[in-house]
Amino acid sequence: MDEALKESIKQFLSSLIAATDKACDEAIDATKQDGRFRGAAVNWSDFGYRAYVEEADPYNLELQAFIGKELAKSGFPEVTVLTEW
Q1: 37 Cβ partners below 8 Å, 6+ apart?
Q2: String of b and e for 64-84 (b: at least 16 CB within 10 Å)?
Q3: What is the distance of C-alpha 36 from the center of its chain?
Q4: Other Cβ atoms within 10 Å of 31 Cβ, number
Q5: Running DSSP on this structure, what letter comes out for residue 35?
Q6: DSSP secondary structure string, 37-50?
Q7: Three-state helix/strand/coil letters over the chain
Q8: Phi and psi dihedrals of 16, rounded to 5?
Q9: Is 9 or 56 the better-scoring residue by pLDDT?
């Protein structure tokens, strides 16, 4: 994969994470303001991220771990990687 494509993917993921963080913060604020999600079973202090890799054996734990380590090296240590058909 060329460097320009890698950088484009990194920027996309960074934007996606920022947008997700913002949406979660807004959900937390809505709970504080009007109690909208007060009855929801949510661990508000421990949100995480999950990346799904399609067309790969869901039981290939070695591939999942490898991709997770590569994401961590790229600045995304909090991402759990799952593979699926």
Answers
A1: 27, 30, 31
A2: beebbeebeeeebeebebebe
A3: 24
A4: 16
A5: -
A6: TTTS---TT---EE
A7: CCHHHHHHHHHHHHHHHHHHHHHHHHHHHHHHHHCCCCCCCCCCCCCCEEEEEECCCCCCHHHHHHHHHHHHHCCCCCEEEEEEC
A8: -65, -45
A9: 56
d(C-alpha 60, C-alpha 56), whole Å: 8
Q: What is the pLDDT of residues 22-68, one digit of tens each?
A: 998 898 888 888 888 888 888 877 777 888 999 999 999 999 999 99
Structure tokens at 55: 């067309």
Beta-carbon contacts of residue 17 (< 8 Å; ≥ 6 apart)? 49, 76
Q: Cβ atoms within 10 A of the Cβ of 28, count?
A: 15
Instruction: Note if the pTM is more than 0.90.
Output: no
- Locus of tokens 């949510």: 42
* Cβ atoms < 10 Å from Cβ of 13: 17
